[in-house]
Amino acid sequence: MKITGNILVSNRALPSLNISSKGRAQRSSLIIGRMPGKESEIFLLHQTVSNKSGTKYKVTGNIENVFVKFINEGKASIRLKMPPVDLCINCDDALSLKGFLRTLKLGLEDKNAIKTSILSTSSVSKTIAKPKTKLCIYKKSDYPVLEGFPRTLETVEINSISQTRFDERLLCLSKLQELNLSHNKLTSLPEALGMMPCLKILHLENNCLGESIPDWRWMNGSHIAKTLRLLDLSDNKCQPWPLDVENFGVPSLLECAARTVIRTKVHYSPELIPTVLIDYLNDPKFCVCNTPCFKTYFKTQIGISLEKIASSIQKCNESIHAAPADVYFCSKK
Fold first, then answer.
1. Distance between CA 43 and CA 23 in Å, rounded?
2. What is the 3-state secondary structure (H, E, C) of 138-167?
3. What pTM, to 2 d.p., does this model score?
4. What is the arithmetic mean of pLDDT over 218-233?
5. 77-112 per-position pLDDT tens digit
6. Any idea which architecture 2-109 has in CATH?
7. Which of 70, 130, 181, 267 is a plausible cystine mate for 75, CB 3.0–4.6 Å?
8. How far apart are CA 150 and CA 168, in angstroms?
9. Residue 229: alpha-carbon gap to chain centroid
10. Cis before 240? omega within 30
């Protein structure tokens, strides 16, 4: 069995020799199999582009520990007794890594329980396969129901397959920059979508968003508010239109310039700038962090205790203890 990914070989003996053990992970492959002529012995073969013959590590009686705390992220470490090294694996596909480690476990428990191929370097590829960065699905039969999505994906297109629910496995793609789910039947999106760290382009046109009870909480995510550059919600059933869209994204150049003028107290007058800009600058809202904002802001309403803002109070209704006040925020941080 073979897996491909970024693998770091860390020698545990180097620190005791006062030698830095810092190294870099290399794009490489790790294979589990048997040596020619030794059917009872199981080995790991680590191959890189610079080392096509590979480095062999004995498995039977030589595995000290296997660290799988971050297995769902495609990461694991195999600690060997001799030589004293750790194979730190960052695999493209978490499911493949899990299958590889299950095979390794079977080999440790019963070396005859698995059918492994004979290790050979004659068929080593000149280049290690590059990680998959784009996936396009236009038919239901192509959907990765069992195998899942490779963690290296940067672009995913799932179009015209009548998908009714958002696949939450997509939320695990930390490198995803473009997501196209157009021409489906999605009615809602999970709140966690707003936490995707790299998402820049999101196509949601021709779905059924807004058909049921509208839920746009994903727009309030701290990451997506900073990274998203294109959002297409055309041809949905958004009634009413989500208010957060109006103030979504990066402030305009005019907004940034006006904020700077107010914050730095730059003098302005009709002799210096057009009247329309005078009116614009004379109507700022102030964030709770004291940042001025004009068109790009978020507004909410809170209750202010009357006892905190007045020394004496006369009320016609004793149940009223707070006065409503508008509060503005310059961003979604």
1. 24
2. CCHHHCCCCCCCCCCCCEEEECCCCCCCCC
3. 0.54
4. 82
5. 999 999 999 999 998 778 889 999 998 888 887 656
6. Roll (2.30)
7. 70
8. 14
9. 16
10. yes
The CATH code belonging to domain 134-247 is: 3.80.10.10
H/E element holding 254? helix 253-264
- Provide the residue ranges of all domains of the chain, joining segments of one domain with +: 2-109, 134-247, 253-329
Q: What is the arithmetic mean of pLDDT over 54-58?
A: 91
Strand order in the sheet with 230-232: 134-137, 155-158, 178-180, 201-203, 230-232
pLDDT of 12 > 60? The answer is yes
State the pLDDT at residue 288.
Answer: 82
C-alpha–C-alpha distance, residues 276 and 121, integer Å:
74
Determine the Cα–Cα distance for residues 90 and 274; give it in Å rounded to an integer: 58
Instruction: Kindly tell me if the per-residue pLDDT of 118 is higher than 70.
Output: no
Please, what sign has the CA dihedral across residues 76, 2, 101, 54? negative
Q: Quick one: pLDDT at residue 16?
A: 78
Contact 155, 133 (CB under 8 A): yes
Cα 175 from chain centroid (whole Å) = 5
- Within 10 angstroms of residue 151's Cβ, the number of other Cβ atoms is 23
Helices (H), 75-160: 94-109
* Residue 121 scores a pLDDT above 50: no
Structure token pair of residue 102 = 């299950």
What residue type is 170 in one-letter code?
L
